[in-house]
C-alpha cells in the first residue's frame, strides 16, 4: 500500500513473467505491485493510487484442476486494464502474448503513461516517506521488536523504523560467534546512538559453539545454528514487556521463493513460510515489496554507510559453513582473519564493486609447509570469488596475479596456523557458491 506513488497492479494469472514485468514498470519510475488473481475491488480501492491493472496470464493458470480468473467486479473500478495471454472481452487492451523485450517495454511505457496517465514518481525518497506514515499508522504508540543481524535487509529496516518510531523500536543483536571480524562491533556502533537502551546485545558465542561441538555434517550445522538463533531470540523477547509487533526484513524475493497461488515453493524462508501459527506478534514488514537492489538504494537514501549497504551476501550460519567439517576454534579464527584480509585487499583494488561474492574457506585437513627454515604442519586457506546474476549459475572472477600474490603473502604471514593459499577455479554448476 503506497500513499504517494502511482501504482500499476500486475495480477498473477499464472505467468512466469510477473516479476520481470513489475521490474520493467518500476524502471520507468512508476511503482508496480504483484497481487493474486482474486484480489477484490475493495482491496484495489484501499490501495488508493492504482492507475492501471495488468492481467498477466500464463501456463500456470490452472489451480486445483480449474482455470483461474479475476473477479468481474474489478472492471467496475474505472481503471484501465491490459490483458496478456488471458482472454478478456472487457479489457481496454488485449495481447495474445508479450512480444520481444524492447517491444514489451515500449508497450508498457505506452500503457503506463498514455493509457493510465501515471506519473513517474516512484523513488526511494517517496517510498521512505510512505513507509514511515504506514508504520506510524500500524504501530501507534506500541513497541516493535527486531532481530538485527547486521545484514542489509535488517539494517535497512532498523534505519527506517528509527525514523518512523524512534525509541519505540527494540533491537536484539545475537552474536553467535560465527560473525566476520568486527561485525558485531560495527552493528552496535551503527545503531547504539539512536537506540541506546533499546539495543540489546547478546554474546551467545560459547552457547552456539558448544551446541556445534562434534558436528561436521553441513546441513546439521545449519539446522543447529538456525534453531539456536530462534531460541536465543525468543528468550530475549520473553524478558521484554509491552512488545506487540515483530519487524522483519522480508523482501519480495523471499515471498516469490516461498511460493504463490500459481507457483510452487522454491525454498521456504523462515520469515515467510516458517513462522509459527501461534505467533504472538503482529508483523511489520516495510520492505516486503522491494527487490534487493531497491533495498540497497533505500539504505543509501536513509544514510547508511556504503560498506553496510553493499556488504557481501552472507549465509545465515555465518562462518560456520566456511570452517569445513567440525567447527574448531583455531580454524574458525583462520577463516575470520583471512576473510578480513581478502575483503580489505579487494576494496583497495576496487574488486569489491566488481565481484558479486568473495570469501575464504578453511578445510579440516593440514599439509606440510616451511616457515623460518622449519617444518610446519598447518591448514590451507581457499579463496572463492564468483560473479552471478541469479545465484543459479556462477563464473569465477579472474583476479590479476599481483593482487593474488599480495593477498597470499598477507594471509601466510598474518594468519596463524596457515601455510598455504589456494584459489578455487570451479564454476557453478560443478561447484556451488558456498563450500557447505
UniProtKB/TrEMBL annotation:
Source organism, top-level taxon: Bacteria
Keyword annotations of the record: ATP-binding, Glutamine amidotransferase, GMP biosynthesis, Ligase, Nucleotide-binding, Purine biosynthesis
Domain GMPS ATP-PPase: 122-311
InterPro entries in alphabetical order: Class_I_gatase-like, GATASE, GMP_synth_C, GMPS_ATP_PPase_dom, NAD/GMP_synthase, Rossmann-like_a/b/a_fold
A Pfam entry, by short name: GMP_synt_C
Pathway: Purine metabolism; GMP biosynthesis; GMP from XMP (L-Gln route): step 1/1
UniProt keyword ATP-binding, yes or no: yes
UniProt keyword Chloroplast, yes or no: no
Binding site for ATP: 149-155
Molecular function per GO: GMP synthase (glutamine-hydrolyzing) activity
EC number: 6.3.5.2
NCBIfam families: guaA_Cterm (TIGR00884), PRK00074.1 (NF000848)
Entry function: Catalyzes the synthesis of GMP from XMP.
Name of protein: GMP synthase (glutamine-hydrolyzing)
Organism field: Lysinibacillus louembei
Amino acid at each position: 500500500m503506497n500513499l504517494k506513488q502511482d501504482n500499476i497492479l500486475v495480477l498473477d494469472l499464472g505467468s512466469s513473467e510477473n516479476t520481470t514485468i513489475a521490474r520493467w514498470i518500476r524502471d520507468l519510475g512508476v511503482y508496480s505491485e504483484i497481487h493474486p488473481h482474486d484480489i477484490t475491488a475493495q482491496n484495489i480501492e484501499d490501495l488508493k493510487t492504482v492507475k492501471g491493472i495488468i492481467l498477466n496470464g500464463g501456463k500456470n493458470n490452472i489451480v486445483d484442476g480449474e482455470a483461474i480468473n479475476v473477479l468481474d467486479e474489478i472492471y467496475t473500478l474505472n481503471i484501465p486494464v491490459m490483458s496478456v495471454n488471458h482472454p478478456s472481452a472487457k479489457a481496454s487492451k488485449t495481447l495474445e502474448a508479450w512480444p520481444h523485450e524492447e517491444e514489451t517495454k515500449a508497450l508498457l511505457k505506452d500503457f503506463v503513461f498514455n493509457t493510465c496517465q501515471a506519473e513517474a514518481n516512484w523513488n526511494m525518497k517517496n517510498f521512505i516517506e510512505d513507509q514511515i506514515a504506514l508504520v506510524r499508522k500500524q504501530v501507534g504508540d506500541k513497541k516493535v521488536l527486531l532481530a538485527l543481524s547486521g545484514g542489509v535487509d535488517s539494517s535497512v529496516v532498523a534505519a527506517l523504523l528509527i525514523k518512523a518510531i524512534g525509541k519505540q523500536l527494540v533491537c536484539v543483536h545475537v552474536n553467535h560467534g560465527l560473525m566476520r571480524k568486527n561485525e558485531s562491533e560495527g552493528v552496535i556502533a551503527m545503531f547504539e546512538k539512536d537506540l541506546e537502551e533499546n539495543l540489546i546485545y547478546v554474546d551467545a558465542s560459547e552457547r552456539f559453539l558448544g551446541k556445534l561441538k562434534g558436528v561436521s555434517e553441513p546441513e546439521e550445522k545449519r539446522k543447529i545454528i538456525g534453531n539456536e538463533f530462534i531460541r536465543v531470540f525468543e528468550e530475549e523477547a520473553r524478558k521484554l514487556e509491552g512488545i506487540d509487533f515483530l519487524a522483519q526484513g522480508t523482501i519480495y524475493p523471499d515471498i516469490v521463493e516461498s511460493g504463490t497461488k500459481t507457483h510452487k515453493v522454491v525454498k521456504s524462508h523462515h520469515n515467510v513460510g516458517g513462522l509459527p501459527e501461534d505467533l504472538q506478534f503482529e508483523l511489520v514488514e516495510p520492505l516486503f515489496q522491494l527487490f534487493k537492489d531497491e533495498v540497497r538504494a533505500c539504505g543509501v537514501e536513509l544514510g547508511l554507510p556504503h560498506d553496510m549497504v553493499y556488504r557481501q551476501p552472507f549465509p545465515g550460519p555465518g562462518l560456520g559453513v566456511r570452517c569445513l567439517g567440525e567447527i574448531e576454534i583455531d580454524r574458525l579464527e583462520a577463516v575470520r582473519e583471512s576473510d578480513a584480509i581478502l575483503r580489505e585487499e579487494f576494496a583497495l583494488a576496487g574488486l569489491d564493486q566488481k565481484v558479486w561474492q568473495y570469501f575464504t574457506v578453511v578445510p579440516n585437513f593440514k599439509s606440510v609447509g616451511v616457515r623460518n627454515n622449519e617444518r610446519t604442519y598447518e591448514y590451507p586457506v581457499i579463496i572463492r570469488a564468483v560473479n552471478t546474476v541469479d545465484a543459479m549459475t556462477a563464473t569465477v572472477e579472474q583476479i590479476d596475479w599481483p593482487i593474488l600474490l599480495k593477498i597470499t603473502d598477507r594471509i601466510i604471514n598474518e594468519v596463524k596456523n596457515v601455510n598455504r593459499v589456494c584459489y578455487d577455479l570451479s564454476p557453478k554448476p560443478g561447484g556451488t557458491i558456498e563450500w557447505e
